[in-house]
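Appendix B. Worked example

We walk through a single record from start to finish. Start with the input: the chain for Site-2 protease family protein, Paenibacillus allorhizosphaerae, length 280.
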Amino acid sequence: MVNMATAQSDVYLNPELRINLFSIASIAVFTQFICSVAHEVLGHALMAALSGGSLLHVSSVDADYNIEHLTVGLQRLIHSAGILMNFIVGIVVAIIAKQLLHASSNTRYFLWLLCHVNFFIGGGYMMALSFAGFGDVDAFVTGLPNPVFWKTALTLIGAVISFATLKHGVRTLDPFLGNEYGERRRRGRALTIFPYLVSGIMSVIAGLFNPVGMVLVAMSAAASSFGGQAFLAWMAAFIRIRKSGEPVELLTPVFSKTWIFLGILAFIVDVVVLGPGLPR
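Next comes the structure step. The output line below is what the pipeline stores for this chain.
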């Protein structure tokens, strides 16, 4: 157990108190991979298959299926399944995180990141792409009476979810930040802005291998990662001075061969396998 009262003065000298960026990058890559699988594979592709549709193609950034013979209700469910699955995964992970308060710092950070990124992706789709004229939300509202009302309502709901997730994320990130304000800001940037950039770059790289081409990279890979997850990067700006109270253990993601292996494995699968898509 590391006492916060002594941690601040030794944060650069004690390796156990320094955030390891290799592990953070690996955790971010693994998190992004799970979120992509949740949205495209477990969401759109699985729901299309369970509903009687024909899966044509699924990748890390899109899913294509033949569902024209299905009822309109089932079609809308399939179109919204990616967003719904991100929310479901986020809720499940939040519940798990509350039960694993004695897990390692790396595992707790992974659960924190996975929970909030899933909510940011789901909320981002609803907020940013409601009026885009393409994508999940547009397909969902097509054919509904007064589509402008539905798009406006979904945009507002997405904004509420995203801001609520940001607020919850800042509060639950506190054990990783420490006491001193400057150190809190530095650690906060390493735990939010850095994984945001890593995840976005990974999504774009995987999207480059998609046979649809650069249009999909711009509309889906870049938009959903750099755009939809922008609230993750904004968290750093909301970190404040820690309220007075008893010092608590400072949680620090440290170097981990296991997490680095998982990150490399996730990157390979996401880029080499899911990048071009399946089946081929």
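Two observations about the output. DSSP finds ten helices and two strands in the chain. The longest strand covers residues 54-58.
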